[in-house]
Design goal:
2 helices, Translation Initiation Factor Eif1, 4-stranded antiparallel sheet, alpha+beta, about 35% helix
Length: about 80
């Protein structure tokens, strides 16, 4: 899915946003993968983290403060 050794591989930028008093983890920087691939990544993250989420405007949005588990997931997948 994601290859580590390619210098052209996009780097995910993970941040927290507060919306209506709740946290949303936003993963940006992967828009070059295209919407279908982003949907696959989002589906895997939602399943792994047992939470909701969506893909909007080239970003993956995951419900809750999930920065560390998402970083761990990307580290595991990239290896």
């Amino acid at each position: 899915m994601i290859t580590k050794n390619s210098p052209r591989s996009p780097v995910p930028k993970i941040r927290i946003e507060k919306r209506a008093g709740k946290s949303v983890t936003v993963i940006a920087g992967l828009h070059t993968y295209g919407p279908k691939r982003l949907e696959v990544i989002a589906r895997e993250l939602k399943s792994t983290l047992a939470t909701g989420g969506t893909v909007k405007n080239g970003n993956i949005e995951i419900q809750g403060d999930k920065v560390e588990p998402i970083k761990a997931w990307f580290t595991k997948v990239i290896k």
